[in-house]
Write a structure and sequence with these properties.
Blueprint: E1 2-3, E2 7-19, E3 22-31, H1 45-49, E4 64-71, E5 77-90, H2 104-107, E6 113-124, H3 129-144, H4 151-161, E7 163-164, E8 172-174, E9 182-184, H5 198-206, H6 208-219, E10 223-228, H7 231-244, E11 253-255, E12 272-277, H8 281-284, E13 290-294, E14 299-301, H9 313-327, H10 349-367, E15 375-379, E16 385-388, H11 390-397, H12 403-409, H13 412-421, E17 425-426, H14 430-445, H15 449-467, H16 483-486, H17 497-513, H18 515-520, E18 527-528, H19 536-542, H20 544-547, H21 553-563, H22 567-580, H23 584-599, E19 604-605, H24 607-623, H25 631-640, E20 644-648, E21 651-654, H26 668-687, H27 694-702, H28 725-735, H29 741-770, H30 798-803, H31 813-834, H32 839-867, E22 883-884, E23 889-898, E24 919-926, E25 929-936, E26 946-951, E27 955-962, E28 975-981, E29 985-991, H33 997-1011, E30 1025-1027, H34 1032-1058, H35 1065-1070, E31 1076-1077, E32 1114-1115, H36 1117-1120, H37 1125-1135, H38 1175-1183, H39 1191-1194, E33 1203-1206, E34 1222-1225, H40 1230-1237, E35 1247-1251, E36 1258-1262, H41 1270-1282, H42 1286-1289, H43 1291-1309, E37 1391-1395, ...
Helix pairs in contact: 3-4, 4-17, 5-7, 5-10, 9-10, 10-14, 10-15, 14-15, 21-22, 21-23, 23-25, 24-25, 26-28, 26-29, 29-31, 29-32, 31-32, 40-43, 44-45, 46-47, 46-50, 46-59, 47-48, 47-50, 50-51
């Protein structure tokens, strides 16, 4: 029995606490004034009366009612019914502080009546909301109607006289004394929620999907926040969600109506369900992990950070289907032609509410079906203690991987559910009955929707009857106030406290003696909770064992052989058994079979038997997973302490000492579940009269209940010959009330004794499994099983991951004792406390644990001592690798195992084939490679050899990993390393136990040292070489003299500079011609003995910048004046060897004067005739760019071709990274080149590298243009203003610019398309620092006027490009001369210069248009490095991942490797088009000129010149563009220790990848094949050859001059075991005589090209059999879009049989070693793609025929022809045949050419980052368009009447194709061009055909036709004018001219109104808001205009601030922009 209401409270407005805008309420009266004993009064009720805050109002408001739900400290809920009405309040005006007395009268406010809210509320523990509303309404009605009844009587009756029976009681009818009649009907069950119709209302508000989402979020403990403008709707929604959760109870924060002052509660970290008013919805958006639900709008917003889990798919589909049947019954007959007339609509809201709840109850039952079978009974008396075995339940139902259910079973709601509904004898409700009957219901339904709907209605009827048990409704009478009374607002009277308290007390006394109330109390009946039948999926999981009986016969046979000591037969089946242990069923059978042998007293085993049994246990435990809660480990635990072997007399070793390595033993959750299972078994046996058999006990131990009977009734408890623990506990609980106190205490003591004994038993087990055999080692099971370091194993469960007691670390014996003691004590304390063990036994148990640990450690010492005496296990012989000549093993083979990585090849499984990994072998470190060689562990593949190797120089990263137990292994592996290579190889190696930690650490350190040797001569490529011995004293003297002279000269110049530059001018003019070279540290010391080689790093460049290289810089005399002594000394100190601190040797040359050179450098002896045989010199002759024979003649005159070879850099003084001979225009003199070089980075001036044979267009390359930084320009400007002679000071700059202009005039003059002009470029008129839009003309040639020091021809900006995205101002193509008529189109120029966007600056052209600068967005080296790291991890992952975000293609996409390849190919294609089609010369000038520039130039030459696609030509291309022009191979590949920090940059690899992409698209155009490219990519980082080492021709010459090569060095291949020489193909070399002529006797350095030529002469290994010379077009135009690119096989493929196939001698030797018995031609063999090289094992038909011809010639004794001769004969015979070309092929080729050229046009417009068209089709982008005038359709030629009928006209946004909406399908498939069209919309299809015909199919046509591809961009301006705009970087305000384009939805801005070049564009699609800005006036630097004319525009990318002249213009701009956005 309970009171209807506990408290009545009157809350009013608090005048005393009123402060400004902050108003509060206060409790005016509360009754009773004293708290009830069991129900305390809640403080803070005034906050919930007005959740939005207490405020005074001018107008009265109608009465309102809402419910607030409060929660007390004991989680009890209290319902507050609140009725709020307005009460008049007279306001007394107060005198303001600043108001005088005479002004008071005029300031008084006459209307001083305000209305304050007042609330009356009832607080109750009962959920009778309608009754509360009626009672409060009656009180208010009596008050407002002035009824003749006291309010005290009404309130007193409510609080004291109305008593409500508990659930299941009879109906209560009452009246509070206001002429009313009311009735309350308690529900039948208090556990079932009462909802009325709120759930149906929630579905009406949100819909099916949203409610299901909220249901899932609530079950998985997420934060949910409702907001609405109605407090009642908030309460109804929150209670509806809780009702849907039934039978779960929400255990977290629950506040349906949260007051605004308490909104900080929303930041709580715990889950909650709350509701707030919609006024706070803006603040909700700031909450990151809260799901916001808008009840008024019907939407929910789930944040991205919230993982919204949902029930399993099949449950979710069923839920959707059933909800649709109930909520939308007409949906099934909506499509019927003749729907039935008797169709019914939705049920009434009250019934619909219950039907929805019934559906969700069915879902809950399905999620919990059979849950009672996984309950574990720990204690029965005095009250049940029950736990839920989650792992067993998931395993039996097969629900592994269901995250939703797993999280549900871990939630607090489920814990409460188990505690309340776990006891087997209690009160049951609807849910329990439904669980018992649900299986029968599913069988009856069987997909029949009518039966499903019938069962739903039956459940809903039970829910309805629970709320309305009375069959006859009672008609209530509730008086209401009249309409006129509601407008009468009177103050609520104060109630009489004494009178009201007397009424309450009287009612309480009457309730105590009322007999009717006692009779109405009905005690609910307790009963045995039905378990119900087993779920269907549970039975299926159970029967798997029986169904697999035949397959398990091998397992049983093997085990029987082991115990019968038939070990030979057992070993034959042993590998099969080990592989079968991956199945859970097999593991369970294994445990049962072993348990049977234990019961037969066969636990004492022989040595080999023991080893095999332990191996079986280890492998089975390896596969045991945390999702099963280690059920197998629980069954293996007693076996591990049973099986044993006798080591000697009195010493026995148990199996647990060999299975301790698994992390399961360090997981507390495992021990808890195992302990509870044993306790349950003990407690059950305590109350069972007949003891169970052993088999039954074993079944009980497994946790699987045998339920074979099928005829059980759904309402009955399962019965069998053996009672289940739940049945036993139910019987005991039923008898408990009738048992005496003494018997109760005995039962409680017995159960506690069982718990206590099991705790001791498990403490001993834990000590056995935790203490290692060798106590000096760390705890072996404290680390994860497998994976990399700091990774988690799949064995660590959610509980295990958090409960694992100790971390990694090493311990001694004392540490082991302490750690194990703490671990066991923690376990004992937890389980005993939960099981109700008293404190005394618990203390005693804690005191026993240290003694148990100490005794066990003492016993293990003897076992460990004897175990060491056992004979070691025989391990397989280590296979040693075959070595190259000169290759030697530095580290002997370290035994271990090659582990599988993330690649699925080689591991068998789904890929197929044998399991090649893991493999047992050894890891070798040589001076060339890292090699693993071994055999697979799998017995079916153990005869195969597994080799995985890569060059030591390609090592990318090495790290230590943790390793655990591996299948097929007997022991635990702790140490391991993972090595990743730049050649896309990965070695995961686990060391054997014989390899100690010290050896592992030594190996790791040595690998790092060998990977980065201190000097270049210590690499493998320089093996067998020595350095020349040079006089050390002479070197030291010359060095000191050089430094002293430099210091003296510098001091004199610094002193002279203080006297004024005017006095020094004459001296400077005299010394103008004398040059000073300030080189960085030279490559090698000039006279360095080999003894000091190891201690010096003098061979390395000392630059620490990873992306740049120091080079020689030419200085004039005036330039050296700016060098101070401090910087010179600092530079000298930096160049000194870091390891040499003495003054004996320092490799510093300093600044060398001509008179200082005492001994000539090697480069000083270089002459042009010594470079005559260089390949690039011969290539210059082939191209007509100059030849060696006319070199001297070309120095002084111009040849017929107009070009010459210059030896200006013959001593590498101009550009250290350039070759000695370069091609330049003929008239260009050497002195002019020296001056020109200063304008470019690293003095890499423009040189000609290729010339088109027909168009005569040139391809040039150079370094980037010099540009000063911001501070440098500021200093230059300051010095210029302070200097009195600016012209003379900057004369050098003017001369440089003039020379640059002359050079480009000469380049263009020698092009066939050039036009003579006196002045091509205006060089010196560059914008100043403060303005970028100067329009002044540039000075002519010879002028002395310049603007800033250091200005260059194409200097564009003051900051270097970062490689990122350019600003919007630089995205509109090249910005050159202002041409109003063609501002939007790329112009025809004689020369195009591609450079960085940072170099782009406004410059002017004089006369006709000649040259154009095209900025291009490229990838810098740092971006290439980052991309390569990600790409390599994608291609060779370290572990298999099932995460979709870690999928292969996803990782490749994230790496951005292919977009970088596309960037290179697109720009190279643009170069090809400009040179080949348009006939314009192109200069490529990026970064320093040796990375991206080299990629583009070399790829462009490859595409244009077929010669470079042959073997010889490709060699020439690499030698010229990459080697001669100084690509930094040593720096980019990190060859030495000095370059280690720079990081590996695969610039050359990207180029080879580009060649691969072209080769794949044009396979018939290349003489070499893909294998040649793969070999090139492999050996450029292998350091086997000297070809790709060092950074320039100068460095290679210096190294070659100092080398002494030993005689007899070759590339012989030697067998490591027999030292037998396999091959000797390397020519002998003679030693260089120091006194003789080094140039004549210097040997040729062994190169990669010689190696390839020798292999190419022997076989067709590199020849492309599809090569057809002359059949392909001269110029190749590959597709560069991402869809056309392919991931190279070089990144993915490997061959485990012989290792990489790129060291051909090693590959052939390993293959011959593997094939000891050669196969005859008739033999057949299996080729495994995961193991063998398919191309080598199974050659293609062409190679097979070629080998067959050679073999036939040998058999016929005919002279064997060379393979090339045979192929040439075949090609000659094929040329005579006519070749037909398909028209489709021609059309496709023409279309590909057009697309290729279109991409070039996009690049010229500045759209380098856009995606090129995919495939052959560029589809239209039709948009709806309203034509203002009649327009003809381009498809049907009819008029489009869109101006009369809206929505009928369509127009392509790219080409302007106009058509009807219905004619879109008839439009041409191909869109002609991108970009908006300027043509009229009625362009005929004839004009379209003419544009299509303008595409040149033949490359020899007029190159000017290329401009026909330019799109005519139209422009529509709706508004324009000047605005001030605030910059994004420097935040400066600048005036710009703006144009608003409504067609393109763009706002463009320009420098001025007469400039047509757009400076930037704002996309209106990204605009979120545009409005007036009232805060920008406070910003710094704002122009002084109207403060109301600021405009603020917010976009998705950034915010813009504008300033108009006045407010009117600002309003006009805002309106125009908003109209444009709206339209």
């Amino acid at each position: 029995m309970s009171r209807l209401a506990d408290y009545f409270v009157v809350v009013g407005y608090d005048h005393e606490k009123e402060q400004g805008r902050i108003c509060n309420g206060k409790i005016l009266q509360r009754f009773p004034e004293q708290d009830w004993k069991n129900v305390p009064f809640h403080q803070g009720l005034e906050l919930f009366c007005q959740p939005g805050g207490w405020r005074l109002r001018k107008d009265p408001f109608p009465p309102t009612f809402h419910i607030s739900i409060l929660t007390d400290v004991e989680a009890g809920r209290h319902y507050c019914g609140i009725l709020t009405f307005s009460e008049p309040l007279k306001m007394t005006p107060m005198k303001p502080d600043d108001l005088e007395s005479d002004e008071l009268e005029s300031s008084l406010v006459h209307n001083t009546v305000m209305y304050a809210p007042k609330s009356i509320l009832l607080v109750s523990r009962l959920n009778y909301i309608d009754t509360f509303k009626n009672c409060l309404g009656l009180i208010y009605t009596s008050f407002i109607e002035r009824m003749d009844v006291k309010l005290e009587l009404l309130v007193g009756n409510i609080l004291g006289h109305i008593v409500i029976p508990a659930a299941g009681g009879s109906q209560v009818r009452f009246s509070i004394g206001a002429g009313d009649r009311q009735a309350i009907q308690p529900p039948l069950s208090e556990m079932v929620p009462v909802t009325r119709s709120t759930v149906a209302l929630l579905f009406q508000q949100l819909g099916i999907q949203n409610v299901i989402t909220l249901f899932s979020l609530a079950l998985t403990d997420n934060k949910i926040l409702f907001h609405s403008s109605s407090y009642t709707r908030l309460t109804d929604a929150c209670t509806s969600i809780l009702a849907l959760l039934y039978p779960f109870k929400y255990c977290y924060v629950y506040i349906p109506v949260l007051p605004e002052p308490l909104k900080e509660v929303l930041n709580t970290p715990t889950p909650f369900i709350m509701g707030v008013h919609s006024d706070l919805k803006n603040e909700i958006a700031e909450l990151l992990d809260v799901t916001a639900v808008d009840l008024d709008g019907g939407t929910i917003i789930v944040p991205d950070c919230v993982n919204c889990l949902q029930p399993p798919e099949y449950m979710l589909e069923k839920l959707h289907r059933e909800l649709t049947m109930v909520l939308c019954p007409d949906l099934q007959i909506a499509d019927l032609a003749f729907p039935p007339s008797s169709s019914k609509g939705c049920s009434k809201p009250e019934f619909l509410d219950k039907e929805i709840r019934a559906i969700f109850m069915r879902l809950q039952v399905e999620m919990l079906l059979g849950y009672r079978l996984s309950l574990t009974i720990i204690r029965i008396h005095p009250k049940p203690v029950i736990s839920f075995n989650k792992g067993l339940y998931l395993m039996q139902r097969g629900l592994f991987g269901e995250e939703f259910l797993s999280k549900l079973y871990d939630s607090m709601s489920f814990v409460t559910f188990v505690n309340e509904r776990g006891p087997p004898y209690r009160i049951c409700d609807i849910f329990d009955k439904l669980v018992a009957n649900y299986q029968r219901m599913l069988i009856e339904e069987e997909g029949n929707q009518e039966k499903v709907l019938k069962n739903i209605k039956e459940i809903s009827l039970q829910l309805y009857q629970n709320e309305n048990p009375s069959p006859e409704p009672y008609v209530q009478k509730i008086p209401r106030p009249s309409e006129t009374s509601l407008t009468d607002h009177q103050p609520f009277p104060r109630l009489n406290r004494e009178e009201l308290q007397e009424i309450i007390s009287g009612g309480v006394e009457m309730a105590k003696v009322n007999p009717k109330l006692k009779k109405s109390i009905k005690t609910p009946k307790t009963q045995v909770v039905p378990i119900g039948p087993l779920p269907k999926d549970w039975e299926e999981q159970k029967n798997v064992v029986n169904n697999s009986a035949r397959r398990l016969e091998v397992l049983r046979t093997c085990i029987s052989h082991i115990f019968e000591n038939k070990l030979l037969d057992a070993r034959k089946m042993f590998p099969t058994v080990l592989r079968s242990l991956k199945s859970r069923v097999v593991r369970e059978v294994l445990a049962k079979e072993l348990a049977l042998h234990v019961q037969e007293n066969r636990a004492m085993l022989e040595m080999q038997q023991f080893d095999m049994v332990v191996k079986l246990i280890n492998c089975s435990l390896q596969e045991d997973s945390s999702v099963e809660e280690f059920t197998l480990a629980r069954r293996m635990l007693p076996l591990s302490v049973a099986f044993c072997r006798k080591l000697c007399t009195g010493i026995i070793q148990f199996a647990y000492s060999c299975v301790q390595d698994h992390p399961v033993w360090a997981t507390l959750s495992f021990w808890e579940n195992a302990f509870y299972a044993e306790v349950e078994k003990g407690v059950t046996q305590l109350y069972i009269s007949a003891p169970s058999t052993d088999n039954k006990a074993n079944d009980c131990d497994t946790g699987i209940i045998d339920t074979s009977q099928n005829g059980l009734k759904s309402n009955e408890i399962m019965r069998s010959s053996r009672q289940s623990p739940l049945e036993v506990s139910a019987e005991r609980l039923k008898l408990w009330p009738d048992i005496g106190d003494e018997d109760k205490s005995v039962l409680m003591s017995n159960e506690e004794g069982i718990v206590y004994s099991q705790a001791i038993h498990f403490a001993n087990h834990m000590v056995c499994m935790r203490v290692p055999l060798d106590t000096k080692k760390r705890l072996v099971n404290s680390i994860s099983m497998e994976g990399e370091s700091c990774g988690s194993s799949n064995l660590t469960s959610s509980a295990g991951g958090s409960d694992s007691y100790e971390g990694d670390g090493s311990y001694d014996s004392s540490d082991t004792t302490t750690t194990v003691t703490k671990f066991v004590s923690k376990f004992v304390d937890k389980v005993c406390t939960e099981s109700g063990v008293t404190s005394e036994p618990l203390k005693k148990l804690h005191s026993m644990i240290p003694g148990i640990v100490a005794m066990h450690i003492e016993m293990l010492e003897a076992v460990h001592r004897e175990s060491k005496r056992l004979p070691p296990i025989k391990k397989p012989k280590i296979l040693k690798p075959v070595l190259l000549q000169g290759e030697r093993i530095l580290f002997p083979g370290y035994r271990g195992y090659l582990l599988p990585d993330g690649r699925e090849e080689g591991i068998g499984g789904n890929i197929g084939g044998p399991a090649l990994l893991p493999a047992e072998g050894a890891l070798f470190i040589t001076n060339y490679r890292i090699v693993f060689k071994g055999n697979p562990v799998d017995i079916q593949a153990c005869e195969l050899a597994v080799i995985r190797s890569f060059p030591l120089a390609s090592l990318f990263k090495e790290k230590k990993i943790s390793v655990g137990n591996l299948v097929h292994l007997d022991h635990y592996l702790q140490e391991g390393i993972q090595i990743r290579s730049n050649t896309f190889q990965l070695i995961k190696f686990a060391f054997d136990e014989e390899v100690g930690s010290e050896k592992v650490e030594q190996l790791r350190r040595s690998i790092g040292k060998m990977r980065f040797p201190p000097a270049i001569y210590e690499t493998f490529a320089f093996q067998g070489t020595e350095l020349l011995q040079i006089n050390q004293t002479q070197k030291q003297t010359n060095k000191n003299a050089t430094l002293k002279r430099f210091a003296k000269n510098t001091l004199m110049r610094v002193k002279g500079s203080t006297l004024g530059r005017a006095q020094q001018q004459s001296t400077q003019q005299q010394n103008r011609r004398q040059k000073y070279i300030l080189p960085v540290e030279p490559l090698v010391p000039r006279r360095l003995s080999s003894s000091r080689l190891g201690a010096s790093n003098s061979m390395e460049s000392l630059s620490t910048d990873s992306d740049s290289r120091p080079s020689s810089v030419m200085f004039d005399d005036d330039d050296l004046n700016n060098i101070d002594i401090a910087s010179a000394s600092l530079r000298a100190s930096l160049y000194r060897s870091p390891s040499d601190t003495s003054t004996e040797f320092s490799p510093v040359l300093g600044v060398i004067d001509e008179a200082d050179v005492g001994t000539l450098k090697p480069s000083d002896t270089l002459s042009p005739d010594k470079l005559h045989d260089k390949l690039y010199v011969q290539d210059y002759k082939r191209l007509g760019l100059g030849c060696f024979e006319t070199l001297q003649k070309q120095k002084f005159g111009r040849t017929a071709e107009g070009f010459r070879l210059t030896d200006v850099n013959i001593h590498y003084e101009v550009a250290r990274s350039y070759p000695g001979l370069v091609a330049v225009p003929g008239p260009c003199q050497d002195d002019s080149i020296r001056r020109l070089s200063r304008c470019y980075r690293n003095n890499r001036f423009p040189v000609v590298v290729w010339r088109h044979p027909k168009t005569k267009a040139l391809l040039l390359r150079s370094g980037g243009f010099h540009g000063k930084g911001v501070m440098g320009m500021i200093k230059s400007s300051t010095q210029a203003t302070q200097s009195s002679n600016i012209t003379s000071a900057d004369g050098g700059v003017a001369s440089k610019s003039i020379e640059q202009e002359k050079y480009f005039m000469q380049v263009i003059a020698n092009s066939s398309s050039s036009v003579n002009s006196a002045s091509l470029l205006s060089l010196n008129k560059i914008a100043s620092n403060n303005s970028l839009d100067m329009q002044e003309a540039s000075p002519r040639l010879g002028t002395k006027r310049v603007t800033t020091s250091g200005t260059a021809l194409f200097q564009r900006s003051i900051l270097r490009s970062s490689g990122g995205k350019a600003t919007q101002a630089n995205r509109n193509g090249s910005i050159t001369d202002v041409d109003h008529a063609k501002a939007q189109e790329p112009r025809k120029a004689d020369m195009y210069v591609f450079g960085e966007k940072s170099q782009l600056r406004t410059f002017k052209l004089e006369g006709s248009l000649k040259c154009d600068f095209i900025p291009y967005e490229f990838n810098e080296v740092r971006q290439v490095k980052a991309s390569f790291k990600k790409f390599m991890k994608a291609c060779i992952p370290s572990a298999v991942s099932k995460d979709p975000e870690m999928a292969f293609l996803k990782l490749v996409e994230d790496s951005e490797w292919l977009p970088q390849i596309k960037t290179v190919m697109q720009l190279a294609g643009a170069v090809v088009d400009l040179i080949d089609c348009q006939g314009s010369s192109v200069m490529v000038s990026f970064e320093d000129g040796w990375d991206f520039t080299t990629q583009v130039v070399s790829l462009a030459e490859l595409l244009m010149d077929p010669y470079y696609r042959t073997f010889e030509g490709f060699k020439v291309l690499i030698e010229k563009e990459w080697l001669a022009f100084g690509h930094r191979f040593t720096h980019r590949s990190n060859h030495t220790l000095h370059h280690q920090a720079s990081g590996f940059a695969p610039v050359f690899l990207q180029f080879v990848d580009c060649v691969h992409q072209v080769h794949r698209q044009f396979p018939m155009s290349f003489e070499f094949n893909q294998h040649f490219l793969q070999m090139l990519a492999y050996h450029y980082v292998s350091n086997r050859f000297k070809t790709f080492m060092l950074d320039s021709e100068y460095e290679r010459f210096e190294v070659e001059s100092l080398l002494v090569v030993d005689c007899g060095v070759s590339i012989q291949v030697t067998d490591f075991d027999t030292d037998q020489v396999i091959s000797d193909d390397r020519p002998r070399m003679n030693r260089i005589d120091e006194a003789g002529d080094q140039e004549s006797k210097r040997p040729d350095i062994r190169s990669f090209w010689e190696y390839v030529d020798q292999l190419n002469e022997k076989s067709t290994i590199f020849y492309n059999v599809f090569y057809s010379e002359g059949s392909q077009s001269r110029v190749l135009r590959p597709y560069a879009n991402i869809s056309s690119l392919k991931i190279w096989d070089f990144y993915l493929n490997e061959h485990l049989s012989c290792g990489p196939a790129f060291d051909c001698e090693l590959f052939d030797a390993a293959r011959n070693e593997d094939n000891e018995t050669p196969l005859s031609p008739a033999d057949r063999c299996v080729v495994n793609a995961c193991y063998q090289n398919v191309a080598q094992a199974d050659p293609d038909m062409q190679r097979w025929l070629l080998n067959e011809i050679i073999q036939l010639e040998t058999d016929l004794n005919v002279a064997t022809s060379h393979w090339r001769t045979i192929i040439n004969k075949f090609n000659a015979s094929m040329q005579s045949k006519a070749k037909l070309v398909s028209p489709v092929t021609e059309e496709a080729k023409a279309h590909g050419t057009s697309i290729h050229k279109k991409i070039t046009m996009d690049i010229l417009r500045g759209k380098s980052g856009g995606e090129s068209p995919r495939g052959f089709a560029s589809h239209h982008r039709f948009e709806s368009h309203d034509f203002q005038t009649p327009t003809n359709c381009d498809a049907c030629h009819q008029v489009i009447w869109s101006y009369m009928k809206q929505g009928t006209g369509m127009r392509c946004a790219d080409c302007g194709f106009s058509s009807h909406e219905k004619c879109i399908t008839s439009a041409p498939k191909q869109c002609l061009r991108r970009g908006s069209s300027k043509e009229p919309s009625n362009t005929s299809s004839k004009q379209t055909e003419e544009l299509t015909k303008s595409v040149p199919i033949n490359n020899d046509k007029d190159p000017n036709t290329y401009l026909n591809f330019a799109a005519r961009i139209g422009e529509t301006v709706s508004h324009k004018g000047y605005l001030y705009k605030r910059g994004a970087r420097l935040r400066q305000w600048k005036q710009r001219y703006f144009k608003l384009d409504p067609n393109k939805h763009q706002l463009r801005y320009y420098d001025t109104d007469d400039v047509q070049t757009c400076k930037g564009t704002i996309d209106l699609k990204e605009v979120e808001s545009v409005k007036h800005d009232n805060y920008s006036s406070n910003l710094p630097g704002v122009p002084k205009l109207d403060d109301n004319s600021f405009i603020y525009m917010k976009t998705s990318t950034r915010d813009y601030h504008f300033l108009a002249k006045n407010k009117k213009e600002a309003d006009e701009w805002i309106n125009k922009i908003q109209d444009c956005i709206t339209n």
